[in-house]
Amino acid sequence: MSFDHLLPSSDIATKSGRVAVLMGGTSAEREVSLTSGSFVLKALVDAGVDAFKVDVQKNVLDQLGSLKADRVINMLHGRGGEDGEVQAILDVLKIPYTGSGVKASSVTMDKLMTKRLLLGSQINTPEFMQLKTLEDCLKAIKAIGLPLIIKPVNEGSSIGMSKAEKADELEAAFLLASRYGTVMAEQWVTGSEYTVAWLEDTVLPAIKLETPHVFYDYDAKYKANDTRYICPCGLDEKQLKKLNDIVTKTIDVCGMRHWGRVDLMLNQQGDFQVIEANTIPGMTDHSLVPMAAKQAGLSFQQLVLKLIELTLKPEVADV
Ligand SMILES: Nc1ncnc2c1ncn2[C@@H]1O[C@H](COP(=O)(O)OP(=O)(O)OP(=O)(O)O)[C@@H](O)[C@H]1O
Ligand SMILES: [Mg+2]
Which of 93, 172, 202, 245 suits 252 as a labelling partner, its CA being 20 to 30 A distant? Predict the structure, then answer.
């Protein structure tokens, strides 16, 4: 893995023009996005790029419509920013932006749609069911069995998720997830968890995640100091190839662009199961994509400049 083809930062600073860093937004991940955006902005300014902050609010259409920028770095996590909405506005305005286009963004923000797409392409993903009513919980137990993990379909950062080991835990889990819209139940996978970041056509080193929590929840992601990030992840060459092939196929099937992160688990049968794909992963100094990039020899600043570089290329149609 090498990134010798990186443009010098002075070249990027000259070519990029004015860069708007979109952050904040109105999703449940607003705070994380403000942190990601601030780190990215600092890296750009330090590299001499003419970059500025845009704290995206409800009036996003007006804000983007009056944007005086040559390109956009989109650091909006979650609904509104990662789901195709902002991408559609920027497409209409003909402002180049980092990350996936409308279609891939909207599909991957929706865990049900993502899983249907994966299954259609013979990519393993845990069994699942949409839960429309509380009664559906019992159907999920019958169809999938316990334990289950109950999730909002369109959320990130583990918000609104819980594990249900027993039938009587399902009601609370369902009600919690329902606060964030559509809900799904997924088969609980017992096994190791991996996350794989990718940048352009390179799959970055996988990270193995270990937490003493029941799962990698919001607290384990952003607050706890007992979460372990293992990179290199300890898989042998054959397993790593399998993992990377699944990630490459997932990127392709979902139609993602520029960069992202795929979350997977290794089940007891030794099969990788794709949990989900993220098109605008966290970019704080503790986040997973910068961690994987560092392992591949790319500093945080080089990673951010690479994202800008990707927006300098002519647009590929239909992304
Ligand atoms: N089927 C499963 N079995 C066991 N644990 C799971 C399963 N699905 C998710 N988890 C755990 O819950 C965590 C969050 O799940 P998931 O990645 O689906 O949610 P998310 O909120 O979209 O996350 P992100 O912050 O990566 O966007 C995973 O990192 C994993 O620890
Ligand atoms: Mg995840």
Answer: 93
Q: Which residue has the higher pLDDT, 64 or 318?
A: 64
Number of domains in the chain: 3
pLDDT the model gives residue 1 = 64
pLDDT of residue 7: 79
Which ligand is in closest contact with the Cα of 108?
Answer: 1
pTM for the full predicted model = 0.95
Question: Residue 276: CB within 6 Å of ligand 1?
Answer: yes
Cβ–ligand 1 distance for 126 under 6 Å, the answer yes
Output helix, strand, coil percentages for the chain, rounded to the nearest 5: 40, 20, 40
Query: Residue 213 is part of which domain span?
Result: 108-125+190-295
- Burial per residue of 99-125, b for 16 or more beta-carbon CB atoms within 10 angstroms, e otherwise: bbbbbbbbbbbbbbebbebbeeeebeb
Res. 253: pLDDT tops 80: yes
Q: How far is the CA of 206 from the centre of ligand 2 (A)?
A: 14
- How many Cα atoms are found within 13 Å in the side-chain-facing hemisphere of 277? 34
CATH number at 169 reads 3.30.1490.20
Residue 319 has pLDDT above 70, yes or no: no
Q: Are residues 252 and 173 in the same domain?
A: no
Write down the mean pLDDT value for the chain: 95
Question: Both 70 and 27 in a single domain?
Answer: yes
Segment 118-140 shows an average pLDDT of 97
